[in-house]
Amino acid sequence: MSTTFTLTEEELDLLPSDDDVFQYQQHGWFLSKKLLSDEETALLESASEDFYAGRLDRPLPARPPKLAYWQPSAGSVQRHNDYIHYEDDRIGAILRKPLLGAVAARLAGTAEIRIFQSTLILKPPAPEEASNIVPWHFDRHYWATSTSERMLTAFIPFHDCTEELGTITMVDGSHLWKEVATNDQTSLHFAERDNSELDQMLDENAAFNNAEVTKIPVVIPRGHVNFHHCLTYHGSGANVGDRPRRAISLHLQDGENRYRDFRRSDGRQVAYNHDVLVRRTPAGTPDYADPDYCPTIWRSAES
Ligand SMILES: [Fe+2]
């Protein structure tokens, strides 16, 4: 069975132009038009508050080893909750909006987009809070078990997202850099690594490419979405504002993406959290097209 995905006339006007796609290819990121209505972002905010208060539609059946999962006992640190599209139906319905997938498909140059992961994020207004700093990294490093190099992330704030609130910051054009020889550490999540080491990694990679590091904090109006390529370095700073910075990081995969066996130099197998949750393919490997965890949100009519 093949679901048909369609856009309204108004939504068609919100797709990236050919020049936008070219800019994304050059810079590694793209700030969209207004893809979510004020009602939708208001619902994201109220549903997230219900979630933080303990309301779940569908709890994860298992706790993967590297799950990011803030609970009230953790206190006033930066909150990360993976699989929000799975656990919360109202939030999930907005994240599955075909328009988000259609914009991603245009940027990535693919016919089909599936959700890969989604993380609900709250950065408390606490200038000195160390956990609010997201060190420089690119997302592909966490996705070593994925075959695709076209995956991308949609950063979706629920409100105007300013530099003061610690908005996401892009290292312009860094997705085109060649990487300095990789080491086993690169597949570790930034939460497992030292911030100064990650800063150094960015500088080393820039020097290796004879590139300047141009950091662009992306000021995102409410309802707009910042997309970035899976090889684009990014991070974010302190929240020096007077309210929490609320957002979802929606990680997206192209239809071609598959699981691959990936090993560190000592032979140890790298695992992604999906690997203990998703169904198996006929070959017995984790199925990154499992509709429960990785729903398809866009497929072009011509494919
Ligand atoms: Fe990231």
Task: Write structural notes for this entry.
This protein has helices at residues 9-12, 18-27, 38-52, 84-87, 89-95, 98-108, 195-208, and strands at 29-34, 79-82, 112-123, 134-137, 152-157, 168-171, 215-217, 224-229, 234-236, 245-254, 296-299. The protein starts with 8 loop residues before the first helix and ends with a strand. Helix content is 21%, strand content 20%. Strands 1, 2, 3, 5, 8, 10 and 11 form a seven-stranded antiparallel beta sheet that branches. A four-stranded antiparallel beta sheet has the order 4-9-6-7. The radius of gyration is 18 Å and the shape is globular. The chain is α+β, with helices and mostly antiparallel strands and 303 residues long. The chain binds fe (ii) ion. Fe (ii) ion (FE2) is lined by residues 137, 139, 234. It comes from Kitasatospora kazusensis. This is Ectoine hydroxylase-related dioxygenase (Phytanoyl-CoA dioxygenase family).
Features of the shown structure:
alpha+beta, Jelly Rolls, 7-stranded antiparallel β-sheet, 4-stranded antiparallel β-sheet, 7 helices, 11 strands, 20% strand, globular, binds fe (ii) ion
